[in-house]
Amino acid sequence: MIKDPVRTRIFRHSFLILGCLIVVFPIYMAFVASTLSLAEIFQRPMPVLPGSQFFQNYYQAIFIGGRGLGGERAIGALVMARNSMIMAVGITVSKIIISLLSSFALVFFRYPGRSIFFWLVLLTLMLPVEVRIVPTYQLVSDFGMLNSFPGLIIPLAVSATATFLFRQYFLTIPDELVEAAKIDGAGPMHFFRTILIPMARTPIATLVVIQFVYGWNQYLWPLIVTTERKYYTLMIGLSRMLATADHQADWHVIMAITIIAMVPTMILVLTMQQQFVKGLTESDK
Question: Which pTM value belongs to this model?
Answer without folding.
Answer: 0.89
